[in-house]
Design goal:
This protein is of the alpha/beta class. It has 15 helices and 19 strands. Strand 1, helix 1 and strand 2 form a beta-alpha-beta unit. Helix 5 packs across helix 14, helix 7 packs across helix 9 and helix 8 packs across helix 9.
Length: 468
């Protein structure tokens, strides 16, 4: 996978009645700290000699530069009190995630004079951003070397990545949903109108044609087959192995053609009639490369997978799962499982390429997933309202089952079960190793989706985001 690269528009601000030299000093110190943390940013030192946002005459040039540089978020350090209306005008024009912060103020000098009043300015900026109806993220008033600063910056970069991915999503839809899966229906028009999420629907015949073409051209398919032999215990025929590899190459080719960052596929039954294999392993290989391919034409599932992957800064693969059965002995345990599309890199042991649980055709991955803490998430909606179910779980031991699977334990399964049944969710979710709940929660304010925390820990999440 390729880690995400996020670029910030860096617009430190000051107000004229407070010390300009002190604001410039903190502008430079903040820029240095961002460089130490490896953050890519675009400054405004060529707009005015101070490199600070305070003059309305500079605003058009700043907007032009930030748009030309394609920044993904805006960072407004308050070097002193700051000019709140300039921050808000720029934020409104750019329509990007906004981070406001100011360094802790020094003690007044021996004459009682204060140089900056940065904290006071943050109070004003927050109020005016609300007047402008601009959502924003607040990083607690802290020193540059405090751990809260580094953590806050890194979390904000992830929020920017989530918003960027969400606003630029186009999903390759390979055929219709399976007839029996009414639960995976979605409102294509509403997704476009509300979120600018686009679908690129293609018939199954187009995939089949691209599979045949990939097999004829051989090179990419041969490389994929070699990789599978190295990473997997192959328990299918040579023809079936090559069909799986060719399907992976074909989906990749079609995604590039239509400019898509994820795909969904009608994984049964037309595909088996044409090619004799399941698409699970092809999906697995693409998930491992950072391109989610979701089963049963679940559009909302693909969106979920992209959000979770973006929250992890595209550094760790996502797995797409069914909530299936309760643990036989743990009342808060549940089986996450699917026929076999989970990334090979997440397997606890060497995975098999074999037959799935419920079908007679091969092409599925079989392996237990690595344990550890995971974030589980589901974007879904109906009747015009959308929300994001999210929380954490931990991998636990449980009985062997077929397919790709992970037994997990949550804090309160009965509560989570009721949320899934009562909706707007279904039996599908996406997971990633690690805790990225706070990042997803914070991103919801920018993407117009309601966060729904199944652990009932909203105050803990807010405390974390405050730097506590």
């Amino acid at each position: 996978m390729t880690p995400a690269k996020i670029k910030l528009g860096f617009a430190p601000t000051r107000r004229s009645i407070f010390s300009a030299p002190a604001a410039i000093e903190y502008r430079n110190l903040t820029a240095k700290r961002l460089e130490e943390l490896g953050v890519e940013f675009v400054d405004i030192t060529d707009i005015n000699k101070e490199g600070l946002l305070y003059d309305d005459n500079d605003l058009p040039a700043i907007v032009e530069k930030f748009k030309a540089e394609k920044v993904d978020g805006l960072f407004f350090p308050h070097g002193n009190f700051g000019t709140e209306y300039e921050v808000c005008r720029l934020a409104k024009e750019m329509n990007l995630p906004v981070l406001i912060w100011g360094p802790r103020d020094e003690c007044p000098d021996e004459n009682g004079v204060r140089l900056r009043d940065s904290q006071c300015g943050l109070f004003a900026t927050g109020k005016v951003l609300r007047r402008f109806r601009v959502p924003f993220t607040y990083m607690t008033n802290c020193n540059l070397e405090d751990p809260e600063f580094e953590r806050g910056i890194k979390d904000f970069l992830a929020v920017c990545n989530i918003v960027k991915v969400f606003r630029h999503t186009r999903i390759l839809q390979i055929s219709t949903r399976p007839f029996d899966f009414w639960s995976t229906m979605c409102n294509e028009g509403e997704l476009l109108e509300k979120f600018n999420i686009q679908l690129a629907p293609v018939p199954m015949t187009e995939l089949v044609q691209n599979v045949k073409k990939a097999k004829e051209e051989k090179t990419l398919v041969e490389a994929c087959v070699a990789y599978m032999r190295m990473k997997m215990d192959i328990r299918v025929t040579e023809e079936e192995l090559y069909n799986v590899a060719a399907m992976k190459v074909a989906i990749e080719t079609m995604a590039k053609k239509y400019g898509c960052n994820a795909a969904v596929i009608q994984c049964w039954n037309a595909l088996q009639d044409e090619l004799g294999v399941m698409p699970c392993c092809a999906n697995s290989l693409l998930f491992d490369e950072g391109f989610p391919v979701v089963c049963e034409t679940d559009i909302h599932g693909a969106i979920t997978s992209l959000l979770v992957q973006a929250a992890g800064m595209d550094e760790n693969p996502v797995f797409f799962a069914d909530w299936t059965v309760r643990h036989p002995t743990n009342d808060n345990g549940e089986l996450l499982q699917h026929c076999g599309p989970w990334p090979l890199s997440l397997a606890k042991e060497k995975p098999q390429l074999t037959y799935p649980l419920a079908f007679d055709h091969p092409g599925a991955v079989a392996a237990e997933c690595k344990h550890g803490e995971v974030t589980l998430c589901r974007f879904d909606g109906d009747n015009g309202e959308y929300s994001l179910l999210l929380g954490t779980a931990k991998g636990i031991d449980g009985p062997y089952t077929k397919g790709t699977y992970l037994w997990i334990e949550v804090k309160n399964w009965k509560k989570l079960e009721a949320k899934i049944v009562e909706g707007p969710y279904i039996h599908h979710c996406a997971g990633i190793h690690g805790d990225v709940v706070a990042r997803l929660y914070e991103a919801c304010k920018y993407i117009g989706v309601k966060p729904d925390l199944y652990d009932d820990n909203e105050e803990e999440i807010k405390a974390y985001l405050r730097g506590e």
